[in-house]
Design a protein that fits this description.
This protein is of the alpha/beta class. 30% of the residues lie in helices and 20% in strands. Helix 2 packs across helix 3.
Length: 471
């Protein structure tokens, strides 16, 4: 029998930005070996100062490397460090079994004159070319978050890849939307084993059958037949589920702080926002879909009317769309005010939804100022919020680590709402598949006390809708 070709062993050469993005990247390559050029250590040293996320990651990467070296005998460093002995340094897969190699010798490889070796990126390219020449039986792969470096690498014939471990999903189209359209023959296939009952004016159904195992708690079901039935999934247990008819917030009698839903997705969102048993809600949608307006209406109704929560706290990431306007004077709340234009715009709609006199408008404004607090994300670490309605606006600009830090601030009786549009990411370090908003939507979808809704239809104005479609 012919011998099967043995695949080449892989050696991943890491760029500095990979460790600055994820310090635990050293432990993310499973059975494959990892190589660190000396210039990467120099760049880590240059980036370690400061209080930014990048500086913290640089320091954490250095601590990992220092710990690895302290546990390794000096005479064996030339042979590399077996990572499986130290996998407990990071929250990583137990399957890691590769070896970490450091650059010991200079890489005497001549680059094209247009690529001077004094630049860190070009020095890394030179190192990779040297490794390829020295180890022709090994598949050398450069891993970098820098697109330009990957382009230069491919021009030189070097295999280069992005760092994919931080991606929540492979394709953003696979992201949970929060709703499912059922086929017209759904009830015919599931009616035989269906149970139904009513309790306290609410209608429930128990369904059994194929496909139900792919449902999630607090997911909305929409019939495509003439019935127009809309339901929310309460429990899922294998091929069995309990659903409840959803409240139609498009009807005037169900208005929330004077606001009624204009489409099905908005009605589903209000079902999640007004349910006190749901602690975490994420709303994702393009500009003008009503995310902020619906959330504020629900917050005011439950804080001022029902008094379920004591206070509304709203914050957002302070990333400018254009050039930064510089220093902002005043207190924390005054500094955050220019970033809260969406809050102010929506409060103008909500603060007096009925016809009222000037003095009533002013009185309502003063009341809302005392019950709505604007806070900066920079001072959230270490805090605990009790019985608060917390709104994180523009959450698409948060990293998964920042999102975890913020959501874990919630104490008993607190509800957290994340709003954002993953197609409007301003952070230069995030993409649709690595955003913190994508991260929480995917990780919370199976929890019984969370819900998500993707709002697709803009309701701001015909101009805004047309601009979002064609521009």
């Amino acid at each position: 029998m012919p011998n099967k070709s043995v695949p080449k062993k892989k050696l991943f050469v890491l760029d500095t930005n990979v460790l600055l993005h994820d310090p635990s990247a050293l432990f993310r390559f499973h059975e494959h070996d990892v190589y660190l050029p000396m210039v990467v250590l120099e760049e880590l040293d240059n980036q370690k100062k400061g209080l930014s996320e990048v500086a913290r990651n640089a320091r954490q990467s250095s601590r990992f490397l220092a710990e690895l070296l302290s546990l390794q005998e000096k005479r064996n460093i030339n042979q590399g460090i077996a990572l499986n002995q130290f996998a407990n340094l990071s929250e990583t897969s137990p399957k890691v079994s590769g070896i970490l190699h450091f650059q010991i010798n200079e890489a005497p490889v001549a680059l094209p004159q247009s690529l001077p070796g004094s630049k860190p990126d070009n020095s890394i390219l030179s190192t990779v070319l040297y490794l390829e020449a020295e180890h022709p039986d090994v598949n050398i792969i450069l891993v970098s978050k820098d697109i330009n470096l990957r382009i230069k690498a491919k021009i030189l014939g070097i295999t280069a890849e992005d760092y994919f471990n931080d991606q929540v999903i492979d394709d953003i189209e696979l992201l949970h939307t929060g709703m499912l359209s059922l086929p017209k023959d759904f009830w015919e296939k599931h009616s035989k084993a269906m149970e139904s009952w009513q309790d306290s004016g609410r209608t429930f159904y128990r369904l059994n059958g194929e496909g139900i195992q792919h449902w999630y708690p607090n997911m909305f079901l929409q019939m495509t037949d003439d019935s127009g039935m809309e339901a929310i999934v309460l429990q899922v247990d294998g091929n069995s589920a309990i659903i409840e008819l959803a409240t139609d917030y498009r009807q005037e009698k169900n208005a929330v702080w004077g606001i009624t839903a204009r489409n099905a997705e908005q009605s589903y969102a209000l079902n999640l926002l007004m349910n006190p048993d749901i602690d975490f809600v994420s709303l994702q949608g393009i500009a003008g879909t009503g995310k902020t307006l619906l959330t504020l209406a629900a917050a005011l109704a439950q804080t001022l009317d029902a008094q379920t929560y004591r206070e509304i706290i709203m914050t957002r990431v302070t990333i400018p769309v254009a050039d930064d306007i510089g220093f902002l004077p005043g207190t924390e709340e005054e500094k955050m005010t220019p970033w809260m234009g969406a809050l102010m715009d929506n409060l103008e709609v909500l603060h007096c939804f009925q016809e009222c006199d000037d003095w009533q408008q002013e009185a309502t404004k003063e009341l809302l100022k005392h019950r709505i607090k604007i806070r900066s994300l920079n001072f959230m670490r270490g805090r605990t919020f009790l019985n608060k309605f917390i709104i994180f606006d523009e959450a698409q600009n948060l990293t998964p680590k920042q999102m975890k830090t913020l959501i874990t601030r919630a104490g008993p009786g607190t509800k957290v709402i994340c709003l954002g549009d993953i197609k409007q990411i301003d952070s230069p370090y995030l993409t649709e598949t690595t955003s913190g908003l994508t991260y929480v939507v995917d990780h919370f979808k199976s929890w019984a006390h969370s819900g998500h809704m993707t709002l697709k239809r803009g309701e701001r104005s015909r101009l805004a809708d047309h601009a979002a479609e064609i521009l």
